[in-house]
What does this fold into?
Amino acid sequence: MNCTTLIKKKKIKKARIGVSCLVLAVSLAVPGEATTLADALIQAYQTNPRIRIGQSVLDAANAAVSETTASALPQISATANASLARDFDTDDSTERDLSLRLAMNQIIFDGGQSRYALQAMQQTALSSEQRLLAAEQAVLLDAVTAFVNVLRDQQLVTLAASNVDVLTEELRASNDRFEIGLLSRTDVSQTQARLSAARAELEIRRGALLRSREIYRSVIGSEPQDLVSPPPPPELPPDVAAAEAVAMERHPRVLEALLNMEAASATANQMRGNWIPTLSADISHTLRRQSTRDSTSSRLSAGLTGRATLFDSGKSRSQRQRANAVLAQRRHELQLAGAVTRQSIRIAYSNWIVANASVDAIEQQVESAQLALEGVREEQSLGARSTLDVLNAEQEVRNARANLLTATRDVFVAAYTVLFEMGLLTMAHLNLGTDPAQAEPASDPG
It folds into this structure.
């Protein structure tokens, strides 16, 4: 099911689909230097510092897993010792003593503490991976929004500039007709006022475009150059219930909270065994050379060591209480994450439906306003309408077209917001296939 099918299911006419999905087109000046939405998303993914921070946190968590794993494996150490002694009171002899010791220690039983510690670290690493996915989604949504905002503001600037050109020509024509007595000074002043307002609007639109370009630069990492109309967004579920089911299963917000709870559960189990005696095995081999005896000795030893805590002033009990409190906190956080995700996906899906319906209505508004303008101009030629009536009708058309540009941008952003709230706004789901390990370091935005 594609974007067209989905919009048809929401009873939006096929004529509106091109506006909703293929929004904000601009002319392609230099094909070889054009920037597609995919180009912008890949660049944002490779350069945005938020993703690099998340990757570093994940790397640290994976290293902690390796460290915890190693602590439960046999530990082998080597000790070398060399000493030199001289006795001046007796035979003025020199004694040399060389020794080398190899030892291995292995924990045999610790009440499961090593196993639970490893589980906690593993779940924490998986949680960091979900946090990285959350950062990736946020960056990609910001990139999509920045991309279409620049396209929208470029067209709004073009529309405002066209309005200034049209009103400039109308003012010239009004002055000519005033000179021959066909219009009054009031008609000329009304046209002049609209032209001044149009020039002010053009400057406002240029300022908005400048802000959008700066946001694009900060999110994506480069200046927007020859942006190409984006393709339709990936397909969305047919109803909000299906979208919610995917969100509860895939969204990093929920998965991170679940993994944090599992890590806290493993830590609580670890703390429950901190009073249990531990047992470890030690094996060592010592090789010693003494010069005074001109002898070499070799010794192999093995033993078991048990350790039990008899009294620690309540430290073990406090650790268990703290671990249980953290576990309770993580459970509540999981409940909250589920509630937030349900609410967010429902709002996002509703916004997408409303945005599509708005485009449908505004396109009808543009069509009606255009017809009304043509009628007013015809009536003006017959003397039934004033210059102000024509100016008002033209303004209605311009406002409707500007609203249509904003509404079509809203449809696109709303669709990607639904993907974001479903947990699917990732490089993998968008088939952009960038390996985080190959990402470039963030460039200096300055």
